[in-house]
Input
Amino acid sequence: MTEKTEDVTVELLDQVAAIATAAGERLLAVYSTDSRPSTMAELMEVARRNERVASGGLEDALHALRPDARFVGDEEEASALPDGEWWVVDDAEGSVNHVHGLAEWGVSIALVVDGQPVLAVFRQPVADLTYTAVRGRGARVNGQPLAVSRKEGLTIAIVGTGQAEAAQ
Output
C-alpha cells in the first residue's frame, strides 16, 4: 500500500458511508413504488430530479474529506484516470429502477488513488444495506464481513440480469 492509501482509515470509510447514506435518504424521500412514467420525457424528468436530489451537498461533503481529490461521475470514463486522488460517484445508481418504483437502486462512491481503487461504499436505502470495502481489508455489508460463495457449480447458482437502457 502506498503512503497515499495508508491514510484511508476506518474513520474515512465511516464518513463516506455517512455521506452515501444521506444521499440515499434524500432519494428515498422522493421514491414511490407507485411511480410509472408514461413517456420518455416523463422518465427523463424524474431521472434528472433524482440526480439533483441525491447530489445536493454530496460533492461538497467529499471535498471536505479530501480537498485535493477530483471528481468523475458515472457518465464519464473512470477507467483511465490520471494519477492523483479521484472520487468516482454515481449519486443515483439504478435511477431507472428508482423511476419505475423498483427497489434496486442506490448511491455509490469510490476513492481511486493513482489508478487504484482504495475505498468504496454502496448504499441501498430500500433494503437498508451499506456495502463497504477498503483495499487490502476486505468488504462488508452493514459492518459484517463478506465472503466468497462456497457453491461448487453453476447448477445451484442464481443468475440475475440488468435492464438495457433505451438510446437517447
